[in-house]
Amino acid sequence: MTRIVSPARSADGRPVPPINGLPRPVPRTGTLAPWIACAVAAFVLLMLIFVLQNGQSSEVRFLGLRGQLPMGVAMLLAAVAGVLLVSVPAVARLVRARMLAGRVAPQTTISAEQTGPAA
Predict the structure, then answer these.
(1) Can you name the residues that pair with 68 across neighbouring β-strands?
(2) Are 24 and 6 in contact (CB under 8 A)?
(3) Cβ pair 73, 51 in contact under 8 A
(4) E strand or H helix at 4, and its extent?
(5) What is the DSSP letter of 6?
(6) What pTM does this model have?
(7) Sign of the CA dihedral 7, 13, 14, 20?
């Protein structure tokens, strides 16, 4: 995704002409990716600390199955299952909406009647 500002400027400060009447997109600088990587790494580190601090064993029963799991792992699995339970229908809805939007998109072809007689 690109940000759009108006008017765009070249390296020497002169305004750059628009493309098809729209302002030119500003190129990305690439500084967001390291921040996202740091945030993900911090989150993974916090989850690792959570699992290691909650190591006491607990009995887990689900749909007739029974087992022993560390409490931190059981809670982490429950959280992951909750995220999947919410995100899978949301992604399916987005995909369906995009498919419907693609079918309804207006046709931009020009018929022979619109262009007039051939020269």
Answers:
(1) 59
(2) no
(3) yes
(4) strand 3-4
(5) S
(6) 0.49
(7) negative
Side chain identity at residue 94, one-letter code = L
Q: How far apart are CA 27 and CA 6, in angstroms?
A: 13
Q: Which residue has the tokens 């400060």?
A: 13
Tokens encoding 54: 């909650």
Q: Which two tokens stand for residue 63?
A: 């749909």
Longest dimension (CA), the chain: 85
Ranges of the chain with pLDDT below 50? 5-6
Per-residue pLDDT of 31-61, as tens digits, reads 888 889 999 999 989 888 888 888 888 888 8
Q: What is the pLDDT of residue 38?
A: 92
> Length of the chain in residues, anyone?
119
Q: What SS3 string covers 60-101?
A: EEECCEEEEEEHHHHHHHHHHHHHHHHHHHHHHHHHHHHHHH
The distance from CA 75 to its chain's CA centroid, rounded to whole angstroms, is 25
Phi, psi dihedrals of residue 69, rounded to the nearest 5°? -140, 150
Contact at 8 Å (CB) between 69 and 57? Answer: yes
Contacts of 91-95 with C-beta under 8 Å, sequence gap 24+, read none
